[in-house]
Amino acid sequence: MAYGTRAAGHRPVVDLADRRALERWRPAEPAVVAEARRLKEAALLDFGLTESVVASWIYAKCPHQIPTTAVETAAVVAGGDGSCPLLYNPEFFVRLGLEGVKFVLFHEARHLVHRHLFADPELRADPVFTLAAEVSINHVALVRLGRTELPQIDGRPTGVDPREIHEDYVADLTAQGLDPLGYDDFVETDMTVFTELRRMSQPPVPAASCVHLTDPGTAGGDQETIDEVVSSSLLNSLLAARRGHPGAERELLDLMDRTDGTSEHASRVWGRLGAGVLRGETPRTRKVDWWQRWLVDVLASKLREGERLVYPKKRGALLAALGHDPMLSRRGPVRDKVLVIAYDTSGSMPDGVVSWLTELVGAIDGVVAHWLSFDAVVMPFRPGERSETGVPPDGVWGKVYGGGGTSFQAVADYVEGRTAVDGDHFEEIPDAVVMLTDGYAPHITPAEPDKWIWLITAGGDDWPDHHTPPMACHRVTTGDR
Fold first, then answer.
1. Can you tell me the distance from the alpha carbon of 223 to that of 214, in angstroms, rounded to the nearest whole number?
2. Is-contact 373 342, C-beta < 8 A?
3. pLDDT per residue as tens digits for the range 60-113
4. Can you give the residue ranges of the Putative metallopeptidase domain (predicted)?
């Protein structure tokens, strides 16, 4: 995915997957690189605080952010190895300035989201859809970043101007005797732009190819990597929204309004995330897995960011010089959150539920997950391992043999540190405990019931819902998602 335009068919001068070669290729002056890095960091900080939580999460998943003149503008390379480095031309960034850099980085992040939500190969091969994506993404960038025009270099805009495209569309349809849409209706959804451009007698196509929209092998457009990075970023943004981050909620609602229902694939993506809870609607796919939406919401409240105590060196030195006692300040997240997921294996657990929960937990940043199976005893495992617990290599749940009976107390005793498994005690303090069970076992009252989340399979006993004190409890669907 790369910003801007360049001659069609032009290939990268070095292998975009070779980080060392990228850094060595015609390096810019050190002062230029330092200034470009400062602008990039300032832009990403603004995204996280105010302007785009989704973009902030996407770039947080780009472990390598490389200044290089091997690209003319900027590129997010989604490679087949699962990595997703950000490449940026330092001279280009310095010429753009901070506001221009923010626009370019937002544009690139939005392209990844667009590629994730609209993954149909036939659609993406349509040159009119190529232009529609540029129009839609740049319109959103202008609105979200509070701009009235595209960034310019040497008096020329650096991308596709959505208002100019709309003017061409109006002129074309008027000449045909057709009624064109006004600008606001024209850009209402991503697919509206595409549909309206196809009404033109001569739909426009880009005069030059954007690297991010040419052959996927050219700019690292590996779909699996894109799906993994964007899906994880959307989930973390959704969790932030449910924790009360107003910017995250506004951005996700806007993104859903523009894309949900415009394609079957996009609606499935939002449905799997359980994001419909943000606007109180069921997804247009008509498949309602309320327990998924409920669980995302509850987990967000349990895994809320905390604070850690730090010693402010500069302020501490000043206080000491003035004769005051040193003090600690609160700053940042307290630590990785600890999540325990326990599967009741005394009965048949639904593979679709187990798989979805495994993917959900694996996509949440800042969480250390501990997986348990239990019947009358507790048996820790790692998803995907082949062991005595019967969990096969592909991570799909297999039945645990032996034991017999069911004991919720065995889980509570283990996670609360009273009993050991194979001589090892559980020494962490969980922030949340998820129990997937049919509910049929003697009732318990955990030491911290507000941390426990019960998922009750079909036909099970939902006693935790009316226990004293009550605990978070919801029935789950037992079919595959």
1. 13
2. yes
3. 888 889 898 888 899 888 876 777 889 999 999 999 999 999 999 999 999 999
4. 42-151
For residue 381 the two structure tokens come to 């495992």
In a domain, 481, yes or no: no
pTM, two decimals, is: 0.71
Q: In this structure, what token pair is assigned to residue 322?
A: 């003035």
Q: What does the alpha-carbon distance between residue 452 and residue 408 come to, in Å, rounded to a whole number?
A: 12
Residue-range definition of the domain harbouring residue 95: 19-227
Percent of the chain with pLDDT over 70: 76
Q: Which residues pair with 343 in a beta bridge?
A: 373, 436
Give the count of beta carbons closer than 10 Å to the beta carbon of residue 384.
Answer: 12
What is the C-alpha separation between 401 and 439, in angstroms, rounded?
19
Do both 340 and 201 map to the same domain?
Answer: no
Residue 249 is assigned to a structural domain of this protein: no
- Return the number of other C-beta atoms located less than 10 Å from residue 380's C-beta: 18
Are 169 and 196 in contact by the 8 Å Cβ rule? The answer is yes
SS3 (DSSP) at 108 = helix
Does the residue 59 lie in any domain? yes
Lowest mean pLDDT among 11-25, 143-157, 344-358: 11-25
Calpha distance 261→286 (Å, rounded): 11
Pairing of strands 367-374, 378-381: antiparallel
- Give yes or no: residues 51 and 177 share one domain: yes
Residue 290: its H or E element: helix 290-302
CB 276 within 8 A of CB 283: yes
With tokens 């004293």, the residue in question is: 468
Cis peptide before 469 (omega within 30 of 0): yes
Other beta carbons within 10 angstroms of residue 151's beta carbon come to 22
CA dist 430 to 246, 368, 451, Å? 27, 10, 8
Token pair, residue 300, equals 């967000």
Structure tokens at 130: 């190529």
CB atoms within 10 A of CB 324: 10
Instruction: List the beta bridge partners of residue 300.
Output: none
Indicate if 187 and 39 belong to the same structural domain.
yes
- Structural domain contains residue 89: yes
Using CB atoms within 10 A of its CB, is residue 321 exposed (0-12), middle (13-18) or buried (19+)?
A: exposed
Is residue 414 within 8 Å of 378, Cβ to Cβ?
yes
| Tokens linked to 446 | 């955990």
Where would I find the beta strands (DSSP E) of 229-352?
Answer: 308-310, 329-331, 337-344
% of the chain at pLDDT higher than 90: 43
Of 227, 245, 279, the last residue of a domain is: 227
Task: Work out how many domains the chain is built from and give that number.
Answer: 2
Closest alpha carbon to 109 in 216, 251, 10: 251
| Cα–Cα distance, 107 to 401 (Å, whole number) | 52
**How far is the CA of 466 from the CAs of 301, 326, 471, 473, in angstroms?**
20, 49, 8, 9
